[in-house]
């Protein structure tokens, strides 16, 4: 707008001095996290950023590049959206407990809670149930708060005590409580019944003609469930419906749900964890289905990492989680936006 003063870049001393306390908090939290994992017998790993496939979820988008081979040929590569594929290969190799503070990349993401390049904290336990990973998450969040001395998290008018006992809710219960929807009744043979969910949610969210079951599920989750999560204490949302299993195994005692959970603080999603799927054939089926939907929606799809699928077949039973490290630092430092807690924000920052 004419007449407005231009905003100085992040590297100007006047702006950097305001951001520096958040960046110092970042270092303290990283040290506390590393100390926790060392005490637990984890090995810190560093996995490659360039991948044959960046991940095979419908709505995740990755930057694409090429490498030039020694013979002059060119091969497509992607900047990873997660270190998950590489970490699971290390589980197959025999590593029992690993973690990584990984740089990851996602196209089409920018906002107070999203960056195109950010840090993901991922860790995996071989031969451990996914409630062990849930317990880890609670401790990691508390360690972050201890590292900064903050008494409570706050974001957009919501507060959360990181030391209080978390609230545990199944996804089915949360949909019933906050949206009045019997979600599990819309799942049959592990698949979502689009018509049944549309009928139940029709007065709750706006439904487009081409919305899938998963689209409607996501709209209800975002509009009616997530705003209630992580209020005054952490919320652990678990037993995701089977159609949203992603890379998680289906629960043996109830095939309508999967061993997947997410953790929220102040309405902000912090972590997404799985009891890991070790059925390579089923994982391939899910990836193919997701990539067909991605092609339909966005006119593009990503290749499957055949090396990863081979590793899945050789993986031990395991559980793992991806935690948004920048978001955790934001909450634990009191920063108003996630770009305030990264040393060099995107150059288009305003």
Mean pLDDT value:
94
Number of strands: 16
Gyration radius from CA atoms, angstroms: 21 Å
> What is the count of helical runs?
9
Roughly how much helix do the residues carry, as a percent range? 25-40%
Lateral arrangement of strands in the main beta sheet = 1-5-6-16-15-14-13-9
Alpha-carbon distance between the two ends: 13 Å
Shape type: globular
Indicate the CATH topology.
BirA Bifunctional Protein, domain 2
Give the domain tally.
Answer: 1
Order of helices and strands: HEEEEHEEHEEEHEEHHEEEEHHEH
Write a brief structural summary.
With 350 residues, the protein is of the alpha+beta class. It contains 9 helices and 16 strands. The radius of gyration is 21 Å and the shape is globular.
Question: Would you write up a description of this structure?
Answer:
The protein is of the alpha+beta class and 350 residues long. The protein has a single domain (13-341), classed as 2-Layer Sandwich (BirA Bifunctional Protein, domain 2), CATH 3.30.930.10. Helix content is 35%, strand content 23%. The protein contains nine helices and 16 strands. The radius of gyration is 21 Å and the shape is globular.
Fold topology:
Elements: H1 13-39, E1 43-44, E2 50-51, E3 64-68, E4 74-79, H2 84-93, E5 97-105, E6 117-126, H3 130-148, E7 153-155, E8 158-161, E9 167-170, H4 171-179, E10 187-188, E11 191-192, H5 194-201, H6 213-225, E12 232-233, E13 235-241, E14 257-265, E15 268-275, H7 280-298, H8 306-314, E16 318-324, H9 325-333
Parallel strand pairs: 1-5, 8-12, 9-13
Antiparallel strand pairs: 2-4, 3-4, 5-6, 6-16, 7-8, 10-11, 13-14, 14-15, 15-16
Helix pairs in contact: 1-3, 1-9, 2-8, 3-9, 4-6, 5-6, 7-8
